[in-house]
């Protein structure tokens, strides 16, 4: 299979996975420290989606770290096929969660007469913004994975 | 380049483009026939995103139809590269628009005490649902395009 920056077992892939996990954890942290997030379905979906992202990305970060440390090649077709499915599912969920949370945040901030959740409004914005950053980093991984699977 | 159902100039690709245009037009129709959509940023974004999708998909439907009628092969690397960029941009925008509109629709229907827009609530739901159908069909096209570009 092709081998370039970002393929499984490279330092770039490892950094991408760490960034994904970091952004997702930060997004969850900002969201769950608000007192009223559980009243809005989209915010609960964001927490669930980011939680799944943390599990997936941190698992692959460990795998990439192991491959880097032992200098093993871990991208055979079967494994990359699995990575492609997982990456695309989590990337789609991350974008959907980020977009739905942002839609509601913008509704509160711009469309209605300001956000009435007090100090928590900034946390909601930050959580949605971090979800978008998570999506950008997992999106890069997803495209690389599909590319090396298709290129064979 | 590879040639299978769904690659540019095939009947499957043509049907996919027609479906994308149809769902996007239907989504716009339901949204703009509500009287209050312009007050919500996410609903305006849905109309803009679906509008872009209609332009892109109907343009490619015409191209696919022309290729089918004249039996020309239209998938060279440069053209497919262009299709990949356009497909991925519009697919991402469609998913974001569908998710943000759905987030607000669910907020009104489930989280708050029911939707207070009267008869228009069903239209909002239909518009969001049709945007998801648009995204599924453009998503299929996007994956096929990236695959044939990567497979060369």
UniProtKB/TrEMBL annotation, chains A, B:
<dbReference type="InterPro" id="IPR045009">
    <property type="entry name" value="CASPL-5"/>
</dbReference>
<keyword id="KW-1003">Cell membrane</keyword>
<dbReference type="Pfam" id="PF04535">
    <property type="entry name" value="CASP_dom"/>
</dbReference>
<protein>
    <recommendedName>
        <fullName>CASP-like protein</fullName>
    </recommendedName>
</protein>
<keyword id="KW-0472">Membrane</keyword>
<keyword id="KW-0812">Transmembrane</keyword>
<feature type="transmembrane region" description="Helical">
    <location>
        <begin position="40"/>
        <end position="68"/>
    </location>
</feature>
<comment type="subunit">
    <text>Homodimer and heterodimers.</text>
</comment>
<feature type="transmembrane region" description="Helical">
    <location>
        <begin position="12"/>
        <end position="33"/>
    </location>
</feature>
<comment type="similarity">
    <text>Belongs to the Casparian strip membrane proteins (CASP) family.</text>
</comment>
<keyword id="KW-1133">Transmembrane helix</keyword>
<dbReference type="InterPro" id="IPR006702">
    <property type="entry name" value="CASP_dom"/>
</dbReference>
<dbReference type="GO" id="GO:0005886">
    <property type="term" value="C:plasma membrane"/>
</dbReference>
<feature type="domain" description="Casparian strip membrane protein">
    <location>
        <begin position="7"/>
        <end position="136"/>
    </location>
</feature>
<feature type="transmembrane region" description="Helical">
    <location>
        <begin position="130"/>
        <end position="150"/>
    </location>
</feature>
<feature type="transmembrane region" description="Helical">
    <location>
        <begin position="88"/>
        <end position="109"/>
    </location>
</feature>
């Amino acid at each position: 299979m092709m081998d370039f920056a970002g393929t499984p077992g490279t330092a770039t892939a490892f950094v991408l996975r760490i960034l994904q996990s970091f952004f997702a954890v930060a997004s969850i942290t900002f969201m769950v420290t608000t007192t009223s997030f559980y009243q809005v379905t989209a915010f609960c979906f964001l927490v669930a989606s980011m939680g799944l992202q943390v599990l997936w990305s941190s698992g692959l970060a460990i795998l990439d770290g192991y491959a880097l440390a032992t200098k093993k090649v871990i991208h055979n077709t079967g494994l990359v096929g699995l990575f492609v499915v997982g990456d695309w599912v989590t990337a789609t969920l991350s974008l959907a969660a980020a977009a739905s949370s942002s839609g509601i945040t913008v509704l509160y901030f711009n469309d209605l007469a300001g956000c009435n959740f007090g100090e928590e409004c900034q946390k909601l914005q930050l959580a949605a913004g971090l979800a978008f950053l998570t999506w950008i980093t997992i999106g890069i991984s997803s495209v690389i994975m599909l590319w090396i699977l298709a290129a064979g």
